[in-house]
């Protein structure tokens, strides 16, 4: 009977530590010799971990929304610092105008004095000289006022700009926290679901243990895809242990939401696979397992070609894939990669104009534990489109663009936000 995989390491951590610290990266895998495999958690423990992770995610998402609102407030024309900066700029401009008039008065007074002839009386000359002196005094005062006002205007603008930059940075930090909480909730939720399925379909079966020697490395995964296109990549499954694995399976799940994170759009996407022995493309079914490798002896590896088909009607959004490896033997022993390889990608809506399909932008995926690789998601490296959001349209100065560039991904809600919430609703909404 097919063994259902459980993310044992990640869930064990979820049960004993705050949910927001949970990760589906290799960080929690202990590959040192003699390291003890964490005890398999019970379904009850998994339910508790999933509930705590979900709560942590909801709190992080609420904090992110608050940070987003803070950004909108900061770049608003009615923000106190923005109003103060505009007032200071107006004062500086008025002072500059006054200085110009004062300088003009000096020039005019000098012209009057220079125009006096020898026939001018002593009183006329004295009056012209006094007018010039008074004009110079007024010009000096106007120059001082203008210099001070300009400095005040620059200082006020800097305060306003700094507040905007800080708001963007705070949003970026909040988004990062949301992503971590989302990964924790998704991992805990998936572990619970699969533990229940294993319990139902493999009653009394032996516990699967973490096997750092079983690795899944995704190659060529795109950081973004476009509606109406197909993108090919691959996963290499390797047996780096000293034991034979008689039956090796590859687990692959796909999730996607629209830009707002509230609508599940995964139905528009299809994940397909093929191998050298089975070249015909096959859709990864609801079971989420690819049974195409068979046995792997120590040191052996196998490669599975994968293809992500994106329907032409797919709306813009974000996506996530989870890919991992399992094995089981006839004697009842079984093992699994300690963590899933997590890959994030942006989904671009179709432009409506026929043409060549854009080449995918490859990114380094997050390999499963035991591979020795450093986790790296693709979502954070994707440039943010600042032309269609509310924030890009607010603010009147040219600093808005600079702030957007400084903030990086701050203008977009975290990739895949609401995956867990929406995924749980799908079953009841169907």
Task: Please explain how this structure is put together.
This protein is an alpha+beta fold. It has 2 domains: 1-208 and 385-430, no CATH class; 211-382, Immunoglobulins (Immunoglobulin-like). It is built from 7 helices and 14 strands. The strands form 3 sheets. Strands 1, 4, 6, 9, 11, 12 and 13 form a 7-stranded mixed beta sheet that branches. Helix 1 (8-16) packs across helix 4 and helix 3 (80-115) packs antiparallel against helix 4 (122-201).
Instruction: Classify the beta-strand content into a percent band.
Output: 15-25%
What is the tally of helical segments? 7
Structurally, the number of domains stands at 2
Residue-averaged pLDDT, rounded? 75
Query: N-to-C terminal Cα separation, in Å?
Result: 29 Å
| Overall helicity | 40-55%
Structural class: alpha+beta
Give a quick account of the main beta sheet: strands, pairing sense, barrel closure: 7 strands, mixed
> What order do the SSEs take from the amino end to the carboxyl end, as H and E?
HHHHEEEEEEEEEEEEEEHHH
Cα-atom radius of gyration:
33 Å
Shape: elongated
Number of strands: 14
Which stretches are low in confidence, meaning pLDDT under 50 for 5 or more residues running? 1-35, 353-430
């Amino acid at each position: 009977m097919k063994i259902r995989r459980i993310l044992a390491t990640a869930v064990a951590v979820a049960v004993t530590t705050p949910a927001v610290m949970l990760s589906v990266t290799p960080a929690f895998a202990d590959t040192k010799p003699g390291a003890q495999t964490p005890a398999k958690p019970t379904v009850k423990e998994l339910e508790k971990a999933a509930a705590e992770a979900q709560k942590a995610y909801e709190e992080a998402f609420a904090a992110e929304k608050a940070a987003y609102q803070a950004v909108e407030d900061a770049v608003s024309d009615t923000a106190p610092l923005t109003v103060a900066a505009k007032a200071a700029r107006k004062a500086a401009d008025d002072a500059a105008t006054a200085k110009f008039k004062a300088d003009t008065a000096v020039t005019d007074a000098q012209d009057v004095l220079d125009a006096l002839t020898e026939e001018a009386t002593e009183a006329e000359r004295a009056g012209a000289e006094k007018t010039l002196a008074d004009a110079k005094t007024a010009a000096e005062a106007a120059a001082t006022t203008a210099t001070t006002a300009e400095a005040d205007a620059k200082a006020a603008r800097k305060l306003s700009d700094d507040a905007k930059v800080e708001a963007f940075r705070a949003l970026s930090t909040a988004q990062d926290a949301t992503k971590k909480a989302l990964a924790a909730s998704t991992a805990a939720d998936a572990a619970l679901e699969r533990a229940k399925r294993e319990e139902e379909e493999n009653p009394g079966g032996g516990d699967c243990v973490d096997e750092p020697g079983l690795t899944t490395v995704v190659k060529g995964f795109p950081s973004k895809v476009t509606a109406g296109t197909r993108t090919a990549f691959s996963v290499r499954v390797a047996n780096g242990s000293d034991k034979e694995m008689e039956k090796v399976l590859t687990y692959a799940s796909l999730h996607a939401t629209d830009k707002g994170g509230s609508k599940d759009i995964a139905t528009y996407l299809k994940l397909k696979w093929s191998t050298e022995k089975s070249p015909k493309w096959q859709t990864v079914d609801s079971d989420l397992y690819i049974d195409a490798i068979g046995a792997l002896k120590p040191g052996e590896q196998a490669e599975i070609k994968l293809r992500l088909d994106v329907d032409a009607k797919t709306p813009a959004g974000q996506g996530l894939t989870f890919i991992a490896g399992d094995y089981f033997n006839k004697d009842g022993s079984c093992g699994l990669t300690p963590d899933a390889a997590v890959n994030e990608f942006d989904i671009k809506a179709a432009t409506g104009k026929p043409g060549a399909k854009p080449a995918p932008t490859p990114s380094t995926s997050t390999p499963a534990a035991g591979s020795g690789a450093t986790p790296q998601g693709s979502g954070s490296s994707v440039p943010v489109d600042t032309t269609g959001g509310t924030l890009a349209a607010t603010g009147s100065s040219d600093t808005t663009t600079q702030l957007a560039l400084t903030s990086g991904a701050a203008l977009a809600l975290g990739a895949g936000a609401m995956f867990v919430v929406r995924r749980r609703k799908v079953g009841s909404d169907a």
